Amino acid sequence: MDHEGEAKRTDLMTITRFVLNEQSKYPESRGDFTILLNHIVLGCKYVCSAVNKAGLAKLLGLAGETNVQGEEQKKLDVLSNEVFVNALISSGRTCLLVSEELEEAVFVKPKQRGKYIVVFDPLDGSSNIECGVSIGTIFGIYAAKDKDKVTLDDVLQPGNRMLAAGYCMYGSSCMFVISTGHGVNGFTLDPSLGEFILTHPNIKIPKKGNIYSVNEGNAKNWEKPITEYVDNCKFPQDGSSPKSLRYVGSMVADIHRTLLYGGIFMYPADKKSPDGKLRLLYEVFPMSYLLEQAGGQAFTGKGRALDLVPKKIHERSPVILGSYEDVEHVKAFYAASKANGA
């Protein structure tokens, strides 16, 4: 037995150790955020296990209900939602929860309340479960002004007021990516230890990428700037090499690739969905927060995504996010279109 090798395995930077190190930088901290994050991580581990054995446990297929978005719920959607609602409430650190799967926000009972608000999509990309494509959980964390008098207005805040955001991707490996406002870090689940280990410290998105990610099935409904930008990706006007198209259809998988390799992800407004399709609170905001923290940009077609102020908990928004220079290029097409009166 390699005793030296085994000893080194106990000196790993786990996500708990990482958060505790961050907490030590703030003497006034009581550890509430650390406790909340531990419960989110526990929920991710549980869902990861359920996803891995979904077929064997007969968790695939429809649960017979339809969620607030009009999407038929998978059994895993229902299970994942219950897991995270229970984990977040039992942490004793939350006062208000907003889930993609629930029409109404969940107000935590006064005796169990804490100061944090969590918005989340418990299982993004669940329509891809049967074909084995990566899926994931997305979350964002806010602070309430007063946990005892919390209202819906406390969650209808712009994304720039988020305290933290992240996602957990369930694929060939289980990876947890998070930002608390000081850069982005990625942790990979070691199944033998049951711990998330820091494998991608201080993630920085490349300034420019050679990949664009968009559902081209919607091309006939696109606005002119998007049509022109995508045409330029395929047939660059400056004589450079064309970009490659990569589109999974699972936001977590597409954003994860964009974050690591660079490039751009787009789900723009179009004639069919003038307000966009992705949900602002628990999809657009968390991913925009992460991309900005990694050095990228997030744009709606009109302005910075994180500056939007939601009016409803399930509000939708267009989003264009990715490498800084690539998003700047898209902005140039919008500016030119506006200047021409289009």
From TrEMBL:
Species annotation: Arachis hypogaea (Peanut)
Hydrolase listed as a keyword: yes
Superkingdom in the source lineage: Eukaryota
Gene Ontology CC entries for this record: cytosol
Subcellular localization(s) per the UniProt record: Cytoplasm
Ranges where the Fructose-1-6-bisphosphatase class 1 C-terminal domain occurs: 205-334
The protein's name: Fructose-1,6-bisphosphatase, cytosolic
GO biological-process terms attached to the record: fructose 1,6-bisphosphate metabolic process; fructose 6-phosphate metabolic process; fructose metabolic process; gluconeogenesis; photosynthesis; sucrose biosynthetic process
GO molecular function: fructose 1,6-bisphosphate 1-phosphatase activity; metal ion binding
Cofactor needs: Mg(2+)
EC nos: 3.1.3.11
Pfam families: FBPase, FBPase_C
Catalytic activity: beta-D-fructose 1,6-bisphosphate + H2O = beta-D-fructose 6-phosphate + phosphate
Uppermost EC category: hydrolase
PANTHER family (UniProt xref): FRUCTOSE-1,6-BISPHOSPHATASE-RELATED, FRUCTOSE-BISPHOSPHATASE
Keywords per UniProt: Carbohydrate metabolism, Cytoplasm, Hydrolase, Magnesium, Metal-binding
Coiled coil: none
Residue ranges occupied by any Fructose-1-6-bisphosphatase class I N-terminal domain in the UniProt entry: 13-201
Major subcellular location class: cytoplasm
